[in-house]
Amino acid sequence: MLVFVSSYFKLFSNVLAGFILGIFVTVFHYFTFYHVSWKNEVVDKPVKIHGHVSKIINRSSYTYIKLDVVKLDKFHVSPVKTIYANLSVTKSPQALKEGDEVSGFGKIRLFRSRKNFDVFDTELYAFRNHIHFKGRMEIDEIISRKAQFKKAYQRYMASVFNEFELGWLYYVLLSGDRTKITKEQKSEFRNLGLSHVMAISGLHIGILFSLSFIVFKCSAFLIYSRLSQAINVNLGCMCGALIIAGVYVILSGMQVSAQRAWLMAALGVVCYGFGLRIGLTRIVLYALTLVVVFEPFSLLNIGLYFSFSAVVAILWVLSKRQNFNLTSNNLAYKAKLLIKIQFVVFLFLLPWSVFAFQGVSISGLIVNLIVIPLLGLIIFPAIILQSLVSLFINIPLISPLDWVLNESYLLLKDLKFNWLGIGQLGVPDLGLMLLSIALLLVKPTLRYASIPVILLITRWYYWQPPNWQVDVFDVGHGTAVLVSKEGKGLLYDLGANYFGSYSIFENVILPFIKANNITLVHTVISHDDGDHAGGLNDLIENGFGSSLHTFHGLTYQQPCLKQTLNFEGLFVEVLWPQELQNNDNNNSCVIVISDGHNRLLLPGDIESRSELKLVNENSTALQSTILLAPHHGSNTSSRVEFIEAVDAELVIFSRGYHSPWKLPHRDVIARYDNAGYQMLDTALNGHIQIRIFSSRYQVFMAREAKNLWFLR
């Protein structure tokens, strides 16, 4: 299409050239820095592992590390590549420190994680951060190494601010390391509209560049009489400030927004040095081009879009003011300009905020008007001074400031209406919103800005929601199924909780419920095995304990209570257990959910004995449209009589990709195949979403929707 258009319209030849360059740069970058040709030769077999401990991920009953791999078996890692492996380690794990060189034997496999809709994409995160493998390792040798400068810097900053109430925030501001922030703190800052404060961005680089420039300029003033007239003092101070800001960008983790700000500052210094006049818009475009050329996969980072959208908003406001003067002493003028900038930035970031977080911070409009000047004029200089003074003497200079800030923070986070939940925003909706904003920026296209808005409203008006929806989450080995209708949800099983450090409920189910504005009304736990009930405590701690009452009583009990109920017009019936059975699996709560036409059967982990009893007692009640395979496809279940009695169109296996039990069993697959079932598998298809209408249903699979070529 581009070639054809370019042959007739020469203007598009530049677009074609850019398109080809983009493909070349991306492919070159992938094969140079990401692709590992020998990775399949080292997986699923004992291999010699050698590398450096990059990070201690978890140190409790087991130790989990991130290893910067140097050698795997006979393969040496290329100097231009970075390969990480997340490994559980044995043999003296408590002695490990970040930076240590370790050797040993282990077994690894390619990094593969769960894939769910509207939930953090762990596989994409692993790709961006060069995490290729995971597995286990038995360490034979540990060689202690002196901590790298970056790690030593982070440890020093942590020690300086450890005793302050908001020490975690000061540590993040100066190190960029967010590993010490709790989920609650992240959520509170997001609700206040202050997430950008914790993500090292143009704001931080601009503040540090300005402070460094002032310090260098004052130092130059003190020795001004000794300087040659040929020296351009301003340029020298700018270069010094640029170096300080560059060191800060490296120490803070080379975040995309920080790179963008530093590149813009560098281009500004270059233009000043050569006497060039380049508009701010061109500087933004050049910075974006450099970021994408050197790291094309930064386009996968939502932070890139937040960062550049905010800069475009600020430049657009400034471009509309005919004689703006930032050095003016008129406080009313500065306040008015700041308010306008804040409002426009809010509007520009609104689509991205809804797309990424399903909502927007209302209080952020006002809070940022206070926090941003405070951060630049008081907080940042104060914590830098504290970190420098602590090199010589341990004096808590910022204690009064810390007390005031902490009290203000405690007051603000308890305010109502901090966060406005809007719900999930799809890619087409995001595209139309951004197109409308882009058309508003330029006068000739201003009149057309309403067209995307009309299309968006029309799309929302005519969109037909399903009568009800079934979401079978990808939870690895385990089960979690959400049935929802008109914003109300019934949850069947909770998945596992791994070593008390990773909860399926908190990291998969709860984010999905929040993203889609679903109120959890009922929760059914089939039985108390860890892969089904592992998130029970997490469910209760997050305030959903009352959802258990209908099926498990006011005081939680197993097996579930046999009953029928009307759930938002859906008929829900507990079919089993009729009486206590010989084991937990056979005591699983079997429920059927029906709208009168389509039926969903959820049988937990019942085995052949219970299946046969169900068939003999009431085979008609088992007939369904959609079946969740009993016991994850184990050969102890799914007997022929049960499969024929259910007579469903679709069966779903909920299981882990690396299943030690080799599920689903090949005999089970053959039985369902012979019965004419369509088979889906969470391990292969990811999260399976079924939207059910009056006379049909549609199936959506997360791995099909998110099947990027570099993750295959």
UniProtKB/TrEMBL annotation:
<keyword id="KW-1003">Cell membrane</keyword>
<keyword id="KW-1133">Transmembrane helix</keyword>
<dbReference type="GO" id="GO:0030420">
    <property type="term" value="P:establishment of competence for transformation"/>
</dbReference>
<feature type="transmembrane region" description="Helical">
    <location>
        <begin position="337"/>
        <end position="357"/>
    </location>
</feature>
<dbReference type="InterPro" id="IPR004477">
    <property type="entry name" value="ComEC_N"/>
</dbReference>
<dbReference type="InterPro" id="IPR004797">
    <property type="entry name" value="Competence_ComEC/Rec2"/>
</dbReference>
<keyword id="KW-0472">Membrane</keyword>
<dbReference type="InterPro" id="IPR035681">
    <property type="entry name" value="ComA-like_MBL"/>
</dbReference>
<dbReference type="Pfam" id="PF03772">
    <property type="entry name" value="Competence"/>
</dbReference>
<feature type="domain" description="DUF4131">
    <location>
        <begin position="15"/>
        <end position="137"/>
    </location>
</feature>
<feature type="transmembrane region" description="Helical">
    <location>
        <begin position="12"/>
        <end position="31"/>
    </location>
</feature>
<feature type="domain" description="Metallo-beta-lactamase">
    <location>
        <begin position="475"/>
        <end position="652"/>
    </location>
</feature>
<feature type="transmembrane region" description="Helical">
    <location>
        <begin position="263"/>
        <end position="285"/>
    </location>
</feature>
<feature type="transmembrane region" description="Helical">
    <location>
        <begin position="417"/>
        <end position="442"/>
    </location>
</feature>
<feature type="domain" description="ComEC/Rec2-related protein">
    <location>
        <begin position="173"/>
        <end position="442"/>
    </location>
</feature>
<feature type="transmembrane region" description="Helical">
    <location>
        <begin position="231"/>
        <end position="251"/>
    </location>
</feature>
<dbReference type="InterPro" id="IPR052159">
    <property type="entry name" value="Competence_DNA_uptake"/>
</dbReference>
<dbReference type="InterPro" id="IPR036866">
    <property type="entry name" value="RibonucZ/Hydroxyglut_hydro"/>
</dbReference>
<feature type="transmembrane region" description="Helical">
    <location>
        <begin position="194"/>
        <end position="224"/>
    </location>
</feature>
<dbReference type="Pfam" id="PF00753">
    <property type="entry name" value="Lactamase_B"/>
</dbReference>
<dbReference type="InterPro" id="IPR001279">
    <property type="entry name" value="Metallo-B-lactamas"/>
</dbReference>
<keyword id="KW-0812">Transmembrane</keyword>
<dbReference type="InterPro" id="IPR025405">
    <property type="entry name" value="DUF4131"/>
</dbReference>
<protein>
    <submittedName>
        <fullName>Uncharacterized protein</fullName>
    </submittedName>
</protein>
<dbReference type="Pfam" id="PF13567">
    <property type="entry name" value="DUF4131"/>
</dbReference>
<feature type="transmembrane region" description="Helical">
    <location>
        <begin position="369"/>
        <end position="397"/>
    </location>
</feature>
<feature type="transmembrane region" description="Helical">
    <location>
        <begin position="297"/>
        <end position="317"/>
    </location>
</feature>
<dbReference type="GO" id="GO:0005886">
    <property type="term" value="C:plasma membrane"/>
</dbReference>
